[in-house]
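Incident log, structure service

09:12 report received: a user says their structure output differs between two submissions of the same chain.
09:20 pulled the input from the user's history:
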Amino acid sequence: MKVYHLYSGGKDSSLAAWILAKLGYEVRLVTVTFGTLDNWKYAEETARRLGFEHEILKLSGEILERAAEMAVEDGRPGRAIQFIHEKALEALASKPDVERVSDGTRRDDRVPYLDLPKARSLEDRFGVAYIRPLLGLGYRTINELVGRLFEVEIRESEELEKSDYEVELRHLLRKRGIDPLSIFPKMHYQSRVLGWKEEKLTSSPSRTARVPKN
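09:34 re-ran on a clean worker, output below:
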């Protein structure tokens, strides 16, 4: 059973990928790009270190342009990030032979997050199963699991080399002469997974995910 999992290389999407593998899915990690930067390479590197297959999903620049307009209109990034995430899920779900899509959204997330009507709509429109392994997990539990499994780099968003949506959105805002810090929260910290904390198992994570020693 193959699942296509939206992947940024951060702790949430990495933990979700690990859980999917433990459940027996063949996990293929997918990183979104608009082609303006090559920041997808950080997720690709992390995917390789974790032993997962990885691919790039290129979205239309018009989506990024519209997201930038939303961010400027609102003076904050929430609606823009939600818009990109929904478009990314739709693009992934519409690919030929894709039967299952997944992401790393959590129980306590506000953005990006698909509520129940939107989740059902995605499944019904594209004939896919939408899987969210972290949906029942709180912040403390996620941090405990991440701490056991992964080596993680945590830095301020403007400084961290990462592969999520906001990197290209910030880049476009700068090109338009807009300081991203006028829209995005200041001193906002994000994560990037660097690899497994301990290499205990060597088989493919699609069959047996690595487990840290107790």
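09:41 both user submissions now match this output. Likely a transient worker issue. Closing.
09:42 reviewer note: Strands lie at 2-6, 26-33, 53-58, 100-102, 129-131, 150-156, 189-196. The mean pLDDT is 91.
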